[in-house]
UniProtKB/TrEMBL annotation:
PROSITE patterns: HTH_MERR_2 (PS50937)
Native source species: Microbacterium gilvum
Entry keyword annotation includes DNA-binding: yes
Annotated keywords: Coiled coil, DNA-binding
One Pfam family in the UniProt entry: MerR_1
Signal sequence residues: none
Record-annotated HTH merR-type domain positions: 16-84
Coiled-coil regions listed in the entry: 81-108
Identification of the protein by name: Helix-turn-helix transcriptional regulator
InterPro entries (UniProt xref): DNA-bd_dom_put_sf, MerR-type_HTH_dom, MerR_fam
Amino acid sequence: MPIPSDPADIDPDAPIFPIAAAAELAAMHPQTLRQYDRTGLVVPGRTRGGSRRYSLRDIEQLREVARLSAEGVRLAVIERILRMEDEVQQLRGRVRELEGELRAERDQRPGARVFATSATGAVITLRAGTRVRRQTDVVLWRPAD
């Protein structure tokens, strides 16, 4: 695998830094990193031989742990904060994925601008300019342009 020439091209989740480098980048002692790994606070990747390898995201988390700890936040609370931040990242990724699916669906259905439901509950896609039969169909959603 070629080495990226631009640091922005590095995968933030790629486990690349050995513990000594990660400790230096996070301004922590390596033993602190080992303790955080044992407690599950910041868990790095592992090589086949079992050596710890930290990613850029791990180092960001370590710096966040240090900042919050310096402000007096307990480690148990920091752990909850990190878990919630991870969940938010996952949810943002899912939202981006769903937005992409929605765009693809819209692109596959040019002219489909209004959705309605029939009296039986079936969802109907209406073309622009199509009138809804008021007695049996109800308009559910009209996307913004």
